[in-house]
Amino acid sequence: MNDLTAEQLLDRYFGYQSFRPSQAAIIRHVMSGQHAMVVMPTGMGKSLCYQIPALARPCGDPSIVLVLSPLIALMQDQVDSLLRRGIDATFINSSLDRETRLARYEALSDGDFKILFVTPERFRKSDFCDAIANRRVSLLAIDEAHCVSQWGHDFRPDYTRVAEIRELLGHPTTIALTATATAECRNDIYRQIGISANDIQLFHEGIDRPNLKLEVSPVYDEEEKLQQLQQTLMTANWGDGSAIVYFSLIKTLIRFSDHLLAAGIDHVCYHGDLPRRARRRVQDEFMSGDADLVLATNAFGMGVDKENIRLVVHAETPGSIESYYQEIGRAGRDGLPSRCWWLYAQEDLMTQMQFIEWSNPDAAFYTRLYQLLSEHGEQCRAYGLDWMNQQLQRRSKHDHRLATAIAILDRHGVLAGPRPPDCFDIQTPLPSRLQDDDQLAEKKRRDQQRLYAMVQLAAETGDRKEFLNRYFADC
């Protein structure tokens, strides 16, 4: 039997002498076989709440802790960190070649690994389901659990299958973890994962980060933003720390980058148009300290666990309080004073309103897309996505509803994959929820409400941290 206590395991593998009070309570709770919902500020040690139970299993116990995680890059960093500590962990995702993936399936079936990270989409693969069926999942951890909820800020349809996944796994003890979940979002999470609110205990540690200084500077236009940002970056003294400047649009990021380089301000850039290898290199340089300033879209950060980020700048307005809080949460994880600075221009709201339009196709658009694929599949394959976009709408070649609709249809299993040529192959009928204008309109309305909350935060004349506390407590 493993005769080490949870505190001894914490010391041996992580070098800490004691848990925070909430961590200890959560670990005792799930190790006794009870479900937990954990809302805890970024950087406060949520992952220990499932890592310690994985280490505490008795010797010879073949059970495993399964972690549903939203991002491939996040899995890679988490597993690398655990392996450096001598913890037998791995991930299985689409970044693996076939040979490596099959080898991990075999090792999984044979009883290897204490912790396994996968996306919920992995459960579409029958070979994975066969492999995990040979193991008892002692604890199911749902990381970034706000993804489960359609009212969260990162809705993922496959996360709505968590109740089915739990049934497939034999209804294991479940822990859902997030830094951002309103009361409405939490109730939706309970419903989606198939656990009654009466059967899952909420551990809510609040959202307050006392060491973070929140600032909002109203600016008139991009030129004024650039002047203020350039002046700050040229005079800032971060000591041994680093900084992130967030942008909503890649083209804006590139314009700012050109100006800052011309002013002699060295930095690296991270955005979704970069190849995966280049993104990985930028992240590694930032983590190692070789680069202390990164200009990034919101694709950067979820997998970054860097203690000494002294400055987080929002050069463009985020689309929601949830996104804003997630991103400023990357600052000051070492507990030292850090600055969170938002350059607020009202013209940014138009960008976010356009994002809301693009991310919320109506039922008619889904129906037209489905009919186009059904009736003109050969032309779709031959002429590609640009041709399809022209057939579906005449408003603008920059209308991104097609990309959103294909991603949603893929996540619902309607299409064979998210990209050509798989995205041209229909697998199942169009789901009823994508034909329900009322339900789709409600999702859009919620997105608009979240953007309006950012306007309210910018206009707040009192304590902005208190505004955030009210938002997450009352919504």
Short description:
The chain is α/β, with parallel strands linked by helices and 475 residues long.
Descriptive overview:
- The chain is α/β, with parallel strands linked by helices and 475 residues long.
- The chain folds into three domains: 6-204, Rossmann fold (3-Layer(aba) Sandwich), CATH 3.40.50.300; 212-345, Rossmann fold, CATH 3.40.50.300; 355-435.
- It contains 18 helices and 13 strands.
- It has helices at residues 6-14, 21-31, 48-55, 72-84, 98-109, 126-132, 162-168, 183-193, 222-235, 250-262, 276-288, 321-328, 348-358, 363-375, 377-392, 401-411, 437-459, 464-474, and strands spanning 35-39, 64-68, 89-91, 115-118, 137-142, 173-178, 200-204, 212-218, 242-246, 268-270, 293-296, 309-314, 338-344.
- Strands 3-4-2-5-6-1-7 form a seven-stranded parallel beta sheet, with helices on one face. A six-stranded parallel beta sheet has the order 8-13-12-9-11-10, with helices on both faces.
- Strand 12 (309-314), helix 12 and strand 13 (338-344) form a beta-alpha-beta unit.
- The longest helix is centred in the C-terminal third of the chain and has 23 residues, at 437-459.
- The radius of gyration is 23 Å and the shape is globular.
- The end-to-end distance, rounded to whole angstroms, is 46 Å
Number of helices: 18
Structural class, judged by helices and strands? alpha/beta
Q: Which architecture of the largest domain would the CATH scheme give at its second level?
A: 3-Layer(aba) Sandwich
Strand order within the widest beta sheet: 3-4-2-5-6-1-7
Write down the Rg.
23 Å
Number of strands: 13
How much beta, percentage-wise? 5-15%
By CATH reckoning, the class of the largest domain would read Alpha Beta
Task: Specify the CATH homologous superfamily of the largest domain.
Answer: P-loop containing nucleotide triphosphate hydrolases
The structural domain count equals 3
- Apparent shape: globular
Mean pLDDT: 90
CATH topology of the largest domain: Rossmann fold
Taking pLDDT < 50 over at least 5 consecutive residues as the criterion, the unreliable ranges are none
- Major β-sheet annotation: 7 strands, parallel
User: What percent of residues adopt helix (DSSP H or I)?
Assistant: 40-55%
